[in-house]
Give the backbone structure.
Amino acid sequence: MQIPFEKSRALQQRAKKVLPLGVNSNFRFWGDDITPYVAKAKGGYLWDVDGNRFIDYRMAFGPIILGHSYTEVDAEVHKEIDKGVLFAMTGELEIEVAEKMIAMCPGIDMVRMACSGTEATMHAIRVARAYTGREKIIKFEGMYHGFHDHALWSTYAPTEAYGNPNSPIPIPSSSGIPRKLQELTITLPFNEFEIFEKAIRREGYQVAAVIVEPCMGNCAAILPQPGFLEMIRQKCDEYGMVMILDEVKTGFRIANGGAQEYYNLKPDLATYAKALGNGYPVAAFGGKREIMSIIGHGVAQGGTYTNNKPGIAAAYATLTLLQTQPILDTIARRGERLMSGIKKIFDEAGIPIIFNGYPAMFSYAIGKESITDQRSWNKTDKELYLKIIDELIERGVMPDHDPREPWFLCFSHSENDIDCTLDAMHDAVKAVLK
Ligand SMILES: Cc1ncc(COP(=O)(O)O)c(C=O)c1O
């Protein structure tokens, strides 16, 4: 690091004595002496403890859709917490949040709140198993649905470990995940129509749910090939499997109605977190009345904090703003300008670049071949990608340090921020090629 970084280094040393890796989530550890420690964030900016200011494109891994410390959201939270933070009983505001979600998201008849995306997908999988009376789950390689044991398979492993694409090997992404769960887990490469079809023909009637992110939000935002999500929908109907659309990253970001609106698609269940509360701890899952109605009738779901007031108030304020202002259109316009500016810089530098994702949440990879799944993404030039990111960070622009993580935009990113980012990108690419 060429920028002042002494305070971050010192905090890392101190933190490592009391927190494993010196952080509270493995993804936040970038490495020794390069992991930033944060002082504050406002709007589209983040400041580290050394006083360096960054245009933030991590947006806390996606939740910040309006801007950090957004005045209207924080005001609603302050107003509500004055009346109490947690009752473990039901209040009117959470009913209004559910009503708003149902109005905004096609295909959602009922919802239940949760506190994190991990919880939301865990509950959705439980409900799908209970509804179908089956136990197997299909998930796609490179997709991430949170930290619970039921979906943390074939997420980050080197793709060489996944075996032949026609008969993939489910790889647990951590020690401590019971091996026995492998019997219940089918992992498949994304966007492979024939492989999906064969797997369904083989095992479809034992499968409770197909859980799928609309795009690979945890692997370079790889988009679905036209017809792939629709094929999942159709096979779920044919074989009685529950389609769980994991909208934790896409929900309330790529459209007010998320990927369901964007792709005109109705899953059986969908999961939400992140942009739902502009950074406050709130999540939800919801879907068809027929499926959701089994909750409470022999099907367990709940949690002490599932309607925590800060989260519910933040969701109420965030959804109200999304419903009443052209927020996502504005973000999309700025995102498009950023994407085309980056493409021009790479084209002029003669570096082959492939874009994926949506303007509010996009990724690029360095390579010539198109990428459609984690296996093909693995062949792209991650080393060069990271060198450029390091140069960008030195110049006050901070996407995540992991090439799989998309760039996230928020409503507070201004046209001027986009210009400054493109200037920094121009200089970063030049510095790397020197
Ligand atoms: C698609 C998806 N699902 C689930 C999760 C887990 O959410 P959380 O970190 O809130 O537990 C994430 C987190 O990044 C995600 O991207």
Remarks:
- The chain has a mean pLDDT of 97.
